[in-house]
Design goal:
Elements lengths: L1 H30 L3 H18 L4 H4 L2 H33 L7 H15 L3 H12 L3 H25 L3 H9 L4 H39 L2 H11 L3 H29 L1
Helix pairs in contact: 4-5, 4-7, 4-9, 4-10, 4-11, 5-7, 6-7, 6-9, 7-9, 8-9, 9-10, 9-11, 10-11
Length: 261
């Protein structure tokens, strides 16, 4: 019995690997990708990066401006996530199976969450550029809409995981809709909700770099400016600062998650 189980598992793994190989070969043929040229270009790219893509003394003089732009990017990311979390919680409560009022309200909440979640922040940036132009507000709203869609869906699932026993216990005592939400559902799910918010902050800081390139703001704009100006030393310093900032934020986020969970 045990041998049959492992034999079946190995067969499924082999079939899955064969499927991936076939898909990869089809993609190579369709896109006319030169595999040999792709692999042989890796050493050349590494050699170029080692020779050009590193900060020098001149680039270090631009560090204050880079830090200032990074601070702007981080603050916009945190602000957009925080505001999106508030709206997402309201829509999640309305659309959740545990706390939702049902009917059209639940359907509308879930539909809005699905719509906003499936539009990438880069697409939101391009759409909002038409209305707001290249400024911080465009990046803020792009991150806000993307965060709102993701967090609404994540909050719904977190609230739905709350045990119905406590909800039924409060209902049996005659508790109203809002006391059930604020005294049972939200307190029970708040650690998971905060974890999702922290995850979204980390994600938005990464995405804000790309959005900055599109909207001409923040740290992304500086990277684009230096790189297009062939100032690779300053561009490399921007990358290093972004990586260090992300590591620091992830460390803080991991610590907070460990405390609240």
């Amino acid at each position: 019995m045990r041998d049959n189980f492992f034999a079946k598992k190995r067969m499924n793994t082999l079939l899955f690997c064969a499927f991936l190989l076939v898909i990869t070969l089809i993609a190579i043929v369709v896109t006319d990708y030169n595999v040999i040229k792709g692999f042989t270009s890796i050493p050349k790219a590494a050699e170029w990066a080692a020779s050009n893509f590193y900060p020098n003394e001149k680039a270090m003089k631009r560090l204050p401006a880079i830090i200032s732009s990074l601070s702007e990017t981080i603050l916009v990311s945190i602000a957009s996530t925080a505001v999106a979390a508030v709206f997402a919680l309201l829509f999640a409560i309305a659309g959740s199976h545990t706390t939702g009022v049902g009917g059209v309200f639940s359907f509308v909440s879930r539909s809005i969450a699905t719509l906003f979640r499936n539009i990438d922040v880069a697409a939101w940036s391009m759409i909002l550029l038409i209305s707001f132009g290249q400024n911080v507000l465009t990046g803020y709203f792009a991150l806000f809409f993307g965060s709102f869609g993701f967090l609404t869906r994540a909050f719904m699932e977190s609230i739905d995981e709350v045990s119905n026993s406590s909800v039924e216990a409060l209902r049996s005592t005659g508790a109203g809709y809002f006391p059930i939400i604020f005294q049972s559902v939200i307190p029970a799910s708040i650690p998971q909700l905060l974890s999702w918010v922290l995850f979204m902050v980390e994600t938005n800081i990464r995405q804000a770099t790309l959005i900055g390139i599109l909207t001409g703001t923040g740290i992304g704009f500086l990277f684009s400016l230096y790189y297009k100006g062939l100032n690779y030393s300053s561009a490399s310093l921007v990358v290093i600062v972004i990586v260090l900032a992300i590591f620091a934020i992830e460390s803080v986020s991991t610590y907070v998650r460990r405390v609240i969970l």
